[in-house]
# Entry
Amino acid sequence: MAAITLKGVTKAYGDHAPVLRGIDLDIGKNEFCVFLGPSGCGKSTLLRIIAGLEDPSSGDVQIGGRVVNEVPPAKRGVAMVFQSYALFPHMTVEQNMGFGLKLSGMPAAEIANRVHTAARTLQLDALLKRKPAALSGGQRQRVAIGRAIVREPGVFLFDEPLSNLDAMLRSQTRIEIAKLHRQFAQASTVYVTHDQVEAMTLGDKIVLLRAGADAERLGSIAQVGSPLDLYHRPNSRFVAEFIGSPKMNFLEAVVESARGGQVAVRLATSNDVVNVSADGASLHIGQTVYLGIRPEHFDDVVTGDTDNARRSSPELQTLRREVVLIERLGEHSYLHLDDHAGTTVVAKQSGDAAVQPGTRVAARFRPDACHLFTADGSAVPKLH
# Structure
């Protein structure tokens, strides 16, 4: 097992702007840490720096308490699973899994023992004599994972290992990776993905990276925390928008009042007033803010007598909108609600929601589930 510490890591190529800026990060022993972010934010580059396949332009990389900037990849005690399977086509599964151990000079009997143990864990024992061409995509990815397991590393590194698989195989292999991490709990795992569902379901810790002008101004790391920390307590609009599917709805508003842990905001397009539990000490009357509501935080979407509905649940806030599109996905539906002023919100409802496009509705939500963000994208702290 090995903890990983990054101190002031920056990476630039030539005279171009840095890809990574000021990375300070601790990844604990046995921790499953996910690097998440949009394309171009440096996720894979940071993983390759940990692996030793890239050198940092500045800063230190520590694995197991020692600085490894000058240590070659083979001596760092890490094993990497790439996006492409990188299997030797002329070798069998057994030979592919054991090849690295053979190069290291390990006795054949020990190699065979490790390969067969890993094959049983990955349900590959019936495929050991096959070559990669005779395997499915999911089986090839498991062989690549097995090749990493047999090395018994202190750190597993995964670089978008599921991106080449179809949806069903991605789901199955994601579950297998989670089980493997628990089974090989002595090793830390760093996993790169652009898929926030993978990040939320696999990670003990998510490191959300940003790219572009915000990264140049604020640094590459947007937020670090558990999946539910980033979901419930995003520190910026960028984080709130990136975590969650579909993404959070944002409605422009102005501050009406801010006192006693309650902030009242008036929506710009509909004139509705919404009361949010938030620390409004830094806000002032008339300030432009953005109200964030996740699609899943709409309790219901009501047609008919909306005034009676409000009286039956006075704690709920109401938005009046017209249904312009319904995405029916079986278990649930996504209702796209338009205010005819250029703003559409998405509300998640049950799969058999009895509404039709063109219907005028009242979408009701709990203000304690809402978020507020200032015009520069900073989050207004929630009080719970």
In short: The radius of gyration is 25 Å. The mean pLDDT is 89. The chain is about 25% helix and 35% strand. The longest helix spans residues 167-183.
